[in-house]
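Ligand-bound model needed. 1-deoxynojirimycin.
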Amino acid sequence: PPKEPAEEEAAAEGQEGGPAEEAAEEPGSWEETFKTHTDSKPNGPTSVGLDFSLPGFEHVYGIPEHADNLRLRTTEGGDPYRLYNLDVFQYELYNPMALYGSVPLLLAHSARSTLGLFWLNAAETWVDISSNTAGKTLFGKLLDYMQGGGETPQTDVRWMSESGIIDVFLLLGPTPAAVAGQYAALTGTQALPPLFALGYHQSRWNYNNEEDVAAVERGFEEHALPCDVLWLDIEHADGKRYFTWDPSKFPQPRAMLERLAAKKRKMVSIVDPHIKVDSAYRVHSELRARGFYVKTKDGGDYEGWCWPGSAAYPDFTNPEMRAWWASMFAYDQYEGSTENLFTWNDMNEPSVFSGPEVTMHKDAVHHGGWEHRDLHNLYGFYVQMATAEGQIQRSGGRQRPFVLSRAFFAGSQRYGAVWTGDNAAEWEHLKISIPMCLSFGLAGLSFCGADVGGFFKNPEPELLVRWYQAGAFQPFFRAHAHLDTVRREPWLFGEENAALIRAALRQRYALLPFWYTAFYRCHRHGLPVMRPLWMEYPEDTTTFAMDDQYLIGEWRPP
Ligand code: NOJ
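Prediction:
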């Protein structure tokens, strides 16, 4: 936050003023550059951190989002796990690098008990993990034990955040279910999805026009493939001006949506939080006139480069701005929208193509004078919150919203679904979708999935089929693909493959009441829908590192 007036005065008068005094003496001495970007750090360099020792624990989990195994590894000699919401191009697997979302919740589990550490800080955060048993084989540990006990296993966890305060919650369990309940008491449980959202979703970047949408829908009908939702990516809007429709490709959106509604189908359109700077675009001119954009450190509207070209970023941390954004989903504001149209919030890390690490400058300024650095990991959370609120309001509070978000933070489960972003059509990506979703679930985000088929590249038919078979058993079940990939609707790979995909889709639909009940229980009690085996068999040490199998459904009450 801005400096207290007394601190400013002290610095100006050259009294002992700590960091403020040094800043006054050497302007710019705290600046940091990243490639061509400068972080002016007007409040000087800061960080907070704390070490935790966990005697008796060898297994730790959580702190999504990372493309890694469920069980966290030790980070000695390498980079710590990083939590900093970023739009990462073609992310690497088995890597502690930051991805699109962050939940600073770590779980530790042993045959005796489970506990949680919730580090409530939305600034850039790093987590270092070390262990006194890492690298020792089972035989080595046994030998230690036989020779008089050896050391008590212990894991040490170091949390470091760039700014903010130390606000940490110790969740004492002692069972996995109790920790989940304690975390849910702090951040809320998964919003109960509308039933259709647990069905199958068909997406690609892009379904090109109204005829294309009609043909894809017909394909599902003719091939007897169940599908609840068709998705429209950024090309549907008029020049990436969200809340509008391209007049030549989608001249009659309402009629298109009504045709889908006649078959009880839904549609999702993308609404990203970067707003084209164009004075003829009402969304932009209103945001500017109301002073609702994030500001630069010098007080102007912060602008960056994104899909529409030059774009500004609504300040979703401002409750008035969020109320305005929510009002944009009213049927008379979002023209052409109907009650079977739902929303996808992408690029909400936020993604800024021209910014440091493809995101916003840390010295940009939000409502109340907070620097972007202080709340970066919360930006996407607030985008999804405001959008979900808009959908609730447009229905007069009668219907549950559906909003998919790419960025997230602790508590995002209250506003909808999340997914693992831009994966690739590779077997390893299919494999890692399981630990990634398990880790989301442990951190409260039960409504999660991965792009079925893989986003980048073209899947060989067997990979696509296997992905449908796996995806049918993951909570959010959506096929999606990059603009440059070849079309891959399920009937394009021959009758045999179509039949296998049909069987997977039908398995999903046969179990739909089961999924809905599982989500209801999760909504009430906070236990993940998709659970690692050790949650159900907490004393069975052989399950502690397993992340290629999992359980859905019945659970024992805490
Ligand atoms: C990035 C998203 O991750 C991807 O799913 C989407 O298709 C593109 N943005 C275009 O909107």
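The longest strand covers residues 48-55.
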